[in-house]
């Protein structure tokens, strides 16, 4: 827009000058239309300026302090010029009208986009937005300015969803900060004066611990807020809440925290919002960048130069990955004939379930048949295990629990047959919940075949039954849930006399402690494993390097075998790998767990922890899960511990 500039182009006091931004306008050149928003210190109107739609920010000016502030604000804005900053088009700095005219950004604020529209950006969009904002903030910092109010509500979006950092109402020159801080604290006892009072609840969650402690604001405090913002963008969750309520509606009080409690927790206990998950497309390095940004020690937070570099390299990696996509043949699903287990389960399954903490202990009625697996000859020299088992499952840092498991010692009243299983759900908990209900019955019904074959068939049939159920569910709900493709990993240990069979699909794991050492009883099925990758491709699936690792496309699944995941069948097979182990007196215990444990605790550590724990299987399970949580496991954690020989809870077995 070329607007006529009337010389001398200064404000009425002469303190604000600009070569390109008109600073006094004739009353006929603008009209205010309807208000867009009422901020805490201004009303923002849609306006027409020189025939063009713009946004007019009209600050509330009630004291001479406010007027001084307006002029400082305007001086600062006149010195800004960066494509990532909300653009000042003109200002009117004469009584009685004091107004800023900004470019009108049509798509509202990032906060509304995330929490009112419930927009979930792709990783590309997250990287694009964070990089542009980082560059804008870098420009501010390099010009000696700190923003002091970085939060999604102050990020405006245009139609292309490009972000613009806005609201410089609290921005200050670094050189003036000391004085500003002193002034504010003296006048109100709070970091930013009246602003603090009005906005504390909404903005507290973006404030760095040093600000909450009423120490100096530095540019590193902006970095902190920026870290919180990136995480909010990834999770879609308002910091410290799971509420996706209207952006304005959330208050700290609704989160069951009082303002003081939250402040105390952020400052003293290092409380931070729940970190986004590495899940499908989120690169680990982005998460560690967030953590560096919101670190407690301002001097250890990265500078914006570093943040920009890091984001640029992530952005490039993302580009490369997407260009390096391998195209391979898609093949139609050939195992379409699902076995019919209709009706029975439908009522029990919550298809959109996000899961709850479920610990299933199932006891099936006595059905003859399982005995067939026990050796018919009563071999008195055969080693006899003495089984005691326990489990512990926790949602961990996740919002929802998608793991399920069951313990079935003495299955069907058979003294020497025991079954234990863990299912780790993804894309919802439905597959995990279904499998935990169905698998035992299927294994039981297959007892006329060999034990290993029964396990294998039971997995395959659980998968077919689940997909069949899902299809009928979809038909009953028509198209609305066609994008629903829940799946789960499954690991089952079946102990028959002294033979231990472990069947596995996915990345849960079982280990055996034999004479003090660990033995793996299962192997993880992940796209990082070359054999699995080749198998998936051979079977018509697509493997791509997405974000940070090999994944099955298009869903971005890391596991290459699973129950469910009907969009990736048959390549992501439900056929388990089965190990068979003859147990002897050397065998002390079996540990099964979902990847939430194994991600952060290795086999030898697991054995060490059990060695140091009272020999009670539930306690051991709980200790392992707790240890994993303390080590920062970001996932659901389920652990089953089975002692295979007699132990007293009071005794240490080593
Ligand atoms: N250029 C613009 N284009 C579109 N909408 C805008 C623009 N500027 C501001 N708004 C809207 O007005 C709201 C308030 O603007 P701004 O944040 O600048 O005011 P404020 O009074 O400082 O608010 P607060 O301090 O409460 O965040 C924004 O959240 C946004 O919804
Ligand atoms: Mn604002
Ligand atoms: Mn503001």
Automatic annotation (TrEMBL):
Lineage top rank: taxon: Eukaryota
Residue ranges annotated for the PPM-type phosphatase domain, each copy included: 388-644
Gene3D superfamilies: PPM-type phosphatase domain, Transferase(Phosphotransferase) domain 1
Record-listed E.C. numbers: 2.7.11.1, 3.1.3.16
Keywords: ATP-binding, Hydrolase, Kinase, Magnesium, Manganese, Metal-binding, Multifunctional enzyme, Nucleotide-binding, Protein phosphatase, Serine/threonine-protein kinase, Transferase
Necessary cofactors: Mn(2+); Mg(2+)
Record domain Protein kinase: where: 30-314
Keyword Ribosomal protein applies: no
SMART domains the UniProt entry points to: PP2C_SIG, PP2Cc, S_TKc
InterPro entries given in the database record: Kinase-like_dom_sf (IPR011009), PPM-type-like_dom_sf (IPR036457), PPM-type_phosphatase-like_dom (IPR001932), Prot_kinase_dom (IPR000719), Ser/Thr_kinase_AS (IPR008271), Ser/Thr_Kinases-Pseudokinases (IPR051681)
One MF annotation (Gene Ontology) recorded for this entry: metal ion binding
Catalytic activity: L-threonyl-[protein] + ATP = O-phospho-L-threonyl-[protein] + ADP + H(+); O-phospho-L-threonyl-[protein] + H2O = L-threonyl-[protein] + phosphate; O-phospho-L-seryl-[protein] + H2O = L-seryl-[protein] + phosphate; L-seryl-[protein] + ATP = O-phospho-L-seryl-[protein] + ADP + H(+)
Keyword Chaperone: no
Entry similarity comment: In the C-terminal section; belongs to the PP2C family.
Protein name: Protein kinase and PP2C-like domain-containing protein
Annotated source species: Eutrema halophilum
């Amino acid at each position: 827009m070329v607007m006529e500039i009337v010389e001398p182009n200064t404000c009425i006091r002469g303190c604000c000058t600009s070569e390109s931004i008109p600073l006094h306008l004739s009353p006929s050149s603008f009209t205010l239309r309807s208000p867009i928003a009422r901020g805490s210190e201004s009303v923002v109107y849609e306006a027409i300026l020189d025939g063009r739609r713009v946004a007019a920010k009209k600050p509330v000016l009630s004291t001479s302090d406010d007027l001084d502030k307006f002029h400082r604000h305007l001086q600062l804005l006149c010195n800004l010029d960066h494509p990532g900053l909300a653009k000042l088009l003109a200002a009117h700095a004469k009584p009685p009208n004091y107004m800023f005219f900004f470019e009108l950004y049509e798509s509202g604020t990032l906060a509304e986009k995330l929490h009112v529209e419930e927009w979930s950006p792709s990783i590309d969009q997250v990287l694009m937005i964070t990089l542009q904002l980082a560059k804008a903030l870098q420009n501010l910092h390099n010009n000696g300015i700190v923003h002091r109010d970085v939060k999604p509500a102050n990020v405006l979006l245009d139609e292309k969803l490009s972000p613009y950092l806005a609201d410089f109402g609290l921005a200050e020159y670094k050189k003036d900060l000391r004085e500003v801080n002193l002034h504010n604290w003296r006048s109100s006892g709070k970091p930013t004066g009246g602003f603090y009072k009005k906005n504390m609840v909404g903005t507290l969650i973006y404030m760095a611990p040093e600000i909450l402690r009423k120490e100096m604001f530095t540019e590193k405090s902006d970095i902190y807020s920026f870290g919180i913002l990136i995480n909010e963008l990834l999770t879609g969750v308002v910091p410290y809440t799971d509420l996706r309520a209207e952006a304005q509606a959330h208050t700290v009080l609704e989160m069951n925290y009082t303002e003081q409690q939250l402040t105390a927790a952020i400052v003293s206990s290092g409380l931070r919002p729940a970190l986004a998950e590495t899940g499908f497309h989120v690169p680990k390095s982005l998460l560690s960048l967030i953590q560096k940004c919101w670190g407690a020690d301002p001097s250890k937070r990265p500078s914006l130069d570093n943040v920009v570099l890091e984001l640029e390299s992530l952005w490039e990696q993302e580009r490369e990955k997407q260009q390096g996509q391998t195209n391979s043949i898609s093949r139609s699903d050939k195992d379409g004939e699902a076995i019919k287990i209709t009706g029975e389960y439908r009522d029990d399954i919550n298809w959109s379930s996000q899961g709850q903490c479920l610990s299933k202990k199932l006891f099936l009625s006595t059905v003859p048949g399982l005995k067939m697996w026990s050796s018919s000859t009563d071999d008195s020299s055969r080693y006899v295990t003495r089984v005691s088992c326990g489990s512990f499952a926790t949602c961990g840092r996740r919002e929802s629990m998608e793991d399920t498991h069951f313990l079935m010692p003495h299955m069907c009243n058979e003294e020497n047959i025991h079954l234990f299983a863990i299912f780790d759900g993804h894309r919802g908990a439905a597959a995990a919940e279904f499998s935990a209900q169905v698998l035992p019955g299927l294994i039981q019904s297959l007892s006329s075949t060999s034990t290993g074959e029964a396990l294998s068939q039971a997995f395959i049939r659980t998968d077919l039954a689940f997909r069949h159920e899902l299809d009928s569910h979809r038909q009953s709900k028509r198209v609305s849930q066609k994008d629903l493709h829940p799946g789960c990993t499954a690991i089952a240990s079946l102990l028959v006399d002294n033979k231990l069979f472990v069947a596995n699909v996915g990345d849960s794991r079982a280990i055996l402690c034999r004479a003090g050492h660990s033995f793996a009883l299962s192997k993880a099925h992940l796209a990082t494993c070359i054999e699995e990758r080749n198998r998936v491709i051979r079977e018509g699936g697509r493997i791509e390097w997405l974000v940070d690792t090999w994944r099955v496309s298009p869903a971005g699944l890391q596991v290459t075998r699973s129950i469910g995941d009907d969009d990736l069948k048959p390549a992501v097979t439900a056929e388990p790998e089965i190990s068979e182990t003859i147990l002897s007196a050397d065998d002390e215990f079996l540990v099964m767990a979902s990847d939430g444990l194994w991600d952060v605790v290795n086999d030898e550590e697991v054995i060490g922890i059990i060695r140091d724990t009272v020999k009670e299987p539930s306690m051991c399970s709980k200790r392992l899960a707790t240890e994993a949580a303390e080590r920062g496991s970001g996932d659901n954690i389920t652990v089953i511990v089975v002692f295979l020989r007699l132990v007293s809870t009071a005794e240490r077995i080593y």
